[in-house]
Write a structure and sequence with these properties.
The chain is an alpha+beta fold. It folds into 2 domains: about 50-155, Translation Initiation Factor IF3 (2-Layer Sandwich), CATH 3.30.110; about 160-245, Roll (Pdz3 Domain). About 30% of the residues lie in helices and about 25% in strands. The chain is built from 8 helices and 11 strands. The strands form 2 sheets. Strands 6, 7, 8, 9, 10 and 11 form a 6-stranded antiparallel β-sheet that branches. A 5-stranded mixed β-sheet has the order 1-3-5-4-2, with helices on both faces. Strand 8 and strand 9 form a beta hairpin. It is elongated, with a radius of gyration of 39 Å. It comes from Pseudolysobacter antarcticus.
């Protein structure tokens, strides 16, 4: 029996043609995607330097917490310093100790704000700022050419808490001694105040050992830091004793 030719309707032919076109288009798109060069990704510019803080050796937050004269303030006092060395000596005489330094790339208000925020983080009581300038931009008055250094200070409670001086010759003769010290103002909340020492007390002995002079008394206080000592005192001509727990001394360092 002879084969009869297959007859496609017009609609079937159109459907076949449309399907073929879509298939070829898809293949072309896939080929284009496979051969496209990878586009470069956008890289984020590095954030501007925000400065850095360096704690001095032995003066970490944990080391100074129990030595503070008072809790850290919410907002440290911040001002421009004059000379780092003389400022540190002056503040040291007032019971302040430098705990670290901050280094910032400019003197803009933003950087000063960052320096203040760092002081809040480390619990500083005072912040002194120093500007180092240089370069042509600095000569033209641009504050971005200058750098900022911050010195951070904490106020420590005195280990004894009273000023003192050598007994003069008249006082020594009246007491029948050859040494001793006379106490001045007593600072509240200190070991001297807790032991009920009074201004005008004449301290003659420490743990029964005579005090030669002011320097010797200072050495005895340092040697007994963190310990209890018995002071032999003459108060209004009456000999009494007082037990004093000498406070801890601030940590020392040779870093500047």
């Amino acid at each position: 029996m002879p084969l009869r030719p297959t007859i496609f309707s017009r609609s079937t032919a159109l459907h076949f043609l449309l399907s073929s076109t879509l298939l070829l288009s898809a293949c072309s798109t896939i080929k284009q995607v496979l051969h496209e060069e990878p586009t470069s990704t956008t890289t984020m510019a590095p954030a501007p330097e925000q400065g850095r803080y360096e704690a001095l050796i032995g003066r970490s937050a944990d080391a100074i917490t129990e030595l503070r004269a008072a809790p850290a303030p919410e907002n440290p006092e911040m001002r421009d310093g004059k000379n780092p060395t003389s400022d540190e000596q002056l503040l040291g005489g007032q019971g302040y100790l430098r705990i670290g330094n901050g280094f910032y790339p400019s003197t803009t208000p933003e950087m000063r704000g960052i320096a203040l925020h760092q002081g809040q983080r480390v619990g500083a009581d005072k912040i002194l700022l120093y500007v180092s300038s240089g370069g042509a931009a600095a000569d033209a008055g641009s504050n971005t050419a200058s750098t900022l250094t911050a010195a951070y200070y904490v106020h420590f409670k005195p280990p004894f808490g009273a000023s003192f001086r050598d007994l003069n010759a008249t006082e020594q003769q009246a007491l029948g001694v050859s040494g001793g010290v006379n106490l001045g103002a007593i600072i509240g909340g200190t070991p001297a105040a807790s032991a009920n020492l009074l201004a005008g007390d004449a301290v003659l002995t420490v743990d029964g050992k005579p005090i030669a002079n002011k320097a010797a008394f200072q050495d005895l206080l340092r040697a007994n830091a963190g310990k209890r000592v018995t002071l032999g005192i003459s108060r209004d001509g009456v000999l009494i004793t007082r037990i004093v727990r000498i406070g801890l001394l601030p940590p020392t360092t040779h870093n500047h």
